[in-house]
Amino acid sequence: MALFKRLARIAAFAALFILLWSLPYGPLFPWSPFKPGYDHLTLARADVYWPKGRPLEPAYRRVDQMIEQTERYQGFSIPKRITVVECADWNDFFRFAPMNRTHAVAGLTIVTGTEIYITPKSGEKKLDTGEFLLHEISHACLDQNSALWRAFKMNKWAWVMEGIAVSNGRQKAYLTLDEFIAQARTVPFPLVIGPKLDELPEPRNMRFNYVAWRYFLEFMRKTRGEPRFHSFLQAFVDSPDDALSSFEKAYGTTVAVAAEEFQNQVRGGNWHDDRQ
Q1: DSSP β-bridge partners for residue 116
Q2: With pLDDT > 90 as the criterion, what percentage of the chain qualifies?
Q3: Which of 119-128, 191-200, 211-220, 264-273 has the lowest mean pLDDT?
Q4: How far apart are CA 194 and CA 258, in angstroms?
Q5: CA 212/CA 89 separation, integer angstroms
Q6: How many CB atoms lie within 10 A of CB 131?
Q7: What percent of the chain has pLDDT over 70?
Q8: Is the peptide bond before 203 cis (omega within 30 degrees of 0)?
Q9: β-pairing, 115-118 with 107-109?
Q10: 239: closest CA among 223, 224, 250?
Q11: Cβ count within 10 A of residue 66
Q12: C-alpha to C-alpha distance for 187 and 216, rounded to whole angstroms
């Protein structure tokens, strides 16, 4: 009995130590009352943290405007404050987001829709930080308008989640329009648009896929109208398991048929980027 109590005390002490460490130095960093090594900017609708001693990129000062832009574009409100963290280095990112140990991402949004990390990749590759802030705020918007357990399921439908995020950011970081059109001549769109990410054929050209998902959603908005698009998006956040049937109900056609229609438009030279 004495041994059991001793082990229980050790376990409790270890749990307390992990919790206290996780606040300023681990995955609970956004909720920590103090954030060593980071400066703080308070905006009307967001809090921005960036490494001490570094100048703050102008894009971070526009986060409030980006939130408003995203609300208009996606048709949802973003009721909760957003914490944006520009990670000082990859070690910080891996401590703050231990389940995402990859150098491939420029940004990450926690499924609560209230915490965004911008990784060192943005600076290393000289990417447009504003594009990736808009991309992540798009995820935050949908996450905040869905239950937490549904938010996990939404991420399985990359052609929706990433497509609208790339569209919201008007991102040019992946491919130019000319590069996309050239590659589109040989890629079968119905295999890229619609299935879950883990069902895409190998090798996965994600730079192409991200742009294809963006332009496909913009094609549906342009040709079928905003009301149908928002009807689909509302059904998606309400019931992500039914994404394919929700699409069919909103548009009166399947994703595969619509993807083939879009493919024919692109290959026929009838598609251009209206939002450049």
Answers
A1: 84, 109
A2: 70
A3: 191-200
A4: 10
A5: 31
A6: 22
A7: 89
A8: yes
A9: antiparallel
A10: 250
A11: 24
A12: 14
Element (H, E) at 179: helix 177-184
Taking CA atoms, 159 is separated from 18, 141, 197, 200, 203, in Å, by 37, 16, 8, 11, 17
Walk me through the domains of the chain, giving residue ranges and CATH numbers: 1-145 (3.30.2010.30), 158-276 (no CATH)
CA gyration radius for the chain?
21
User: Under a CB-based contact definition with an 8 Å cutoff, are residues 45 and 63 in contact?
Assistant: yes
Place of tokens 């915490």: 115
pLDDT band at 220 (very low <50, low <70, confident <90, very high): very high
**Residues present in the chain in total:** 276
- In 3D space, the residue among 93, 121, 90, 116 whose CA is nearest the CA of residue 105 turns out to be 121
Look at residues 176, 183, 172, 173 and name the one whose alpha carbon lies nearest to residue 205. Answer: 183
Q: Can you tell me which residue has the tokens 């926690």? A: 110
What's the pTM? 0.89
Residue 221 one-letter amino acid? R
Taking the C-alpha atoms of residue 129 and residue 48, their distance in angstroms, rounded to an integer, is: 13
